[in-house]
Amino acid sequence: MKHLLLKYMARLTSLSEAEQHAILDEIQVEEYRKGTVLLRQGEIPGKCYFVLKGCVRQHAVDETGRDITSNFYTEEQAIAIFNVHKPDKSSDYTLTCLEDSVLVVGQLDTEREMYAKYTQLESMTRRMIEESFGQVQEEFAAFIASSPEERYKTLLLRRPGLIDRVPQHQLASYLGMTPESLSRIKKRLHRERAETEL
Hints:
Elements (H helix, E strand, L loop, with lengths): L2 H10 L4 H10 L1 E5 L4 E3 L7 E7 L2 E6 L5 E7 L4 E2 L14 E4 L3 E7 L3 H7 L1 H27 L2 H11 L9 H8 L3 H19 L1
Antiparallel strand pairs: 1-8, 2-7, 3-6, 3-8, 4-5, 4-7
């Protein structure tokens, strides 16, 4: 599993092989069962994660009591809650494992020590966050400008494996539609595909 991290270190740093392996020896990798809550809405985050295997859902309950899905993190994606702007530093989201998952766990209180010891690790982390943030900005802009059907088609293109990995009502919430609308869109696209194959 740690070979995924080696890939990032090789791509985003000029650390020697010995330094890379020294970092890997210090990194904490944990296995979590499906259904494990990593962080609850309202708690102060103390950890960040990198998904080696599995799927983690980011969601929140709004003021009307609706549980809204805002992201799914899968292999090779970093999970961090950015809340420094909030006076109480609490999380707006809950993070829940949708599958048995293997995650790299970073302790936020020891992060500075690791960065001081391995200075390139900080720049690697920053570059990973920049890449991720750029992707989120792009996806958000596309989401706002597109119809529910276009959102589903985009998801099929960019993350096709997600569709069979997560419950349909959570997928519908993530796409900003009702489960019934998602079902209708899927049926219509399936029918159109079948007609073009005739």
